[in-house]
């Protein structure tokens, strides 16, 4: 990493009045959370369960919950890293009004960002919801019964299907969160994409929307992305070290 990289990113942030931070898996891999979509990631080793299959099959629901509880110890051990803390500092200073994230791990909230400032367009894996009545269900209320019986949980209120509060392949995007993400992208003057491959739509359309609406676009990702050509600044760097230096936190 060069001082010039840090300086250019710092200057872009300081010049902006309304920053949106958009995060993908790359910020959380620095906390030890495995990537799902990249080559060699979880979906390369284990075919994802489609939403339609989850809804149609008890067997698929059992498998989804088995996978969920198998990966939970890794997620539970993860802590916000320097990149998360730097994003939280931008929010604390009032520089960033919103954080849009593709991640489902809750690490932005754990870093101190208020819940209402985090827009989770792919949901959250730290709790579950009934797909019929919307009741929130805590995982600690589900795990013991599942480990005893191996049967997928039903809603205690209405008997409906309970699923982790994530957006699965084939599941509609959450409309409220998408509207909020689009609004923030349209009205920011700087859009910073951190650790996203920018290939998964509709999420990958958000930086394009920001750019077309007049915002500057910064992309920080280890590998090139399809949107590098429209960005004002592209840095192929580790997020925590680069953003930490630019924001001035350890």
Automatic annotation (TrEMBL):
Residues 1-250 form the Deacetylase sirtuin-type domain. It comes from Oceanibacterium hippocampi. Its EC number is 2.3.1.286. It comes from the Bacteria. It is an enzyme of class 2 (transferase). GO terms for molecular function: histone deacetylase activity, NAD-dependent; hydrolase activity; metal ion binding; NAD+ binding. Zn(2+) binds at residues 130, 133, 155, 158. The keyword Nucleotide-binding does not apply. This is protein acetyllysine N-acetyltransferase. Keywords: Hydrolase, Metal-binding, NAD, Transferase, Zinc. Coiled coil: none annotated.
């Amino acid at each position: 990493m060069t001082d010039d990289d840090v300086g250019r990113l710092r200057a872009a942030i300081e010049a902006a009045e309304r920053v949106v931070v958009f995060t993908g898996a790359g910020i959380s891999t620095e906390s030890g959370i495995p990537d799902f979509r990249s080559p060699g990631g979880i979906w390369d080793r284990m075919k994802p369960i489609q939403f339609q299959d989850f809804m149609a099959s008890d067997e698929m629901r059992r498998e989804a919950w088995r996978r969920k509880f198998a990966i939970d110890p890794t997620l539970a051990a993860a802590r916000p890293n320097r990149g998360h803390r730097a994003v939280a500092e931008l929010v604390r200073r009032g520089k960033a009004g919103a954080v849009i994230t593709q991640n489902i791990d809750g690490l932005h909230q754990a870093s101190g960002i208020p819940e209402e400032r985090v827009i989770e367009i792919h949901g959250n894996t730290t709790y579950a919801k009934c797909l019929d009545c919307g009741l929130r269900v805590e995982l600690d209320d589900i795990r013991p019964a599942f480990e005893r019986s191996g049967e997928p949980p039903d809603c205690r209120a209405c008997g409906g299907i309970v699923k982790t509060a994530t957006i699965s392949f084939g599941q509609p995007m959450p409309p409220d969160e998408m509207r909020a993400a689009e609004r923030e992208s349209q009205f920011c003057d700087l859009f910073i994409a951190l650790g996203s491959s920018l290939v998964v739509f509709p999420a990958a359309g958000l930086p394009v929307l920001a750019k077309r609406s007049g915002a500057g676009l910064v992309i920080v990702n280890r590998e090139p992305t399809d949107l590098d050509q429209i960005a004002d600044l592209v840095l192929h760097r580790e997020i925590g070290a680069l953003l930490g230096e630019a924001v001035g936190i350890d």
